[in-house]
């Protein structure tokens, strides 16, 4: 897993033997075991790493008005009860929420207003709730609704 994995050497002296993985990949899912010996003392811990991913279909840049599918998947083993998608949830009146049994959100004609922060939240039968945030960028025209723009002669126009 090198060079994505590191230990904080300075933290080891204080009893912190945390493992840092950047970036986490889907194949990193599993059980991690640590064993530290200090003098005559031996300490160990087990941590299970689960991964959640948000994928776009089609992959690549999202084009305004072209069908977009956003999927949310997790390595959690319990039965999925509900998937909720939250768009710009802390930005006032433009925030939106969509909930369903499907892991996939379809946006038939994405607009510039669909860009921004999306959070998918997966709720499972064992009461576990897992979420991930994705920043959606859309390529398109974010200008006046009328294609005619007037500018004074001698001034600048954008």
From TrEMBL:
MF term (GO), any: MHC class II protein binding
GO cellular component: external side of plasma membrane; membrane raft
Biological processes per GO annotation: interleukin-15-mediated signaling pathway; positive regulation of ERK1 and ERK2 cascade; T cell activation
Domain of life: Eukaryota
Matching InterPro entries: Ig-like_dom, Ig-like_dom_sf, Ig-like_fold
Domain Ig-like: 50-131
PANTHER family: MICROFIBRIL-ASSOCIATED GLYCOPROTEIN 3, T-CELL SURFACE GLYCOPROTEIN CD4
The name this protein goes by in its record: LAG3 protein
Organism: Sylvietta virens
Lineage of source species: Eukaryota, Metazoa, Chordata, Craniata, Vertebrata
Originating gene: Lag3
């Amino acid at each position: 897993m090198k060079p994505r994995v590191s230990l904080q050497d300075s933290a080891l002296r204080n009893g912190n033997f945390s493992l840092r993985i950047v970036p986490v990949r889907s194949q990193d899912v599993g059980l991690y075991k640590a064993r530290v010996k200090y003098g005559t003392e031996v300490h160990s811990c087990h941590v299970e790493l689960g991964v959640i991913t948000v994928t776009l279909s089609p992959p690549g840049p999202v084009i305004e008005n072209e069908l977009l599918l956003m999927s949310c998947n997790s390595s959690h083993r319990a039965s999925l009860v509900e998937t909720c998608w939250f768009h710009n949830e802390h930005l006032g009146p433009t925030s939106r929420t969509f909930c369903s049994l499907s892991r996939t959100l379809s946006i038939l004609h994405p607009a510039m207003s669909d860009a921004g922060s999306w959070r998918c939240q997966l709720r499972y039968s064992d009461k576990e709730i897992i979420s991930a945030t994705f920043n959606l960028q859309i390529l398109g025209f974010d200008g006046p609704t009328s294609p005619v723009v007037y500018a004074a002669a001698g001034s600048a126009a954008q």
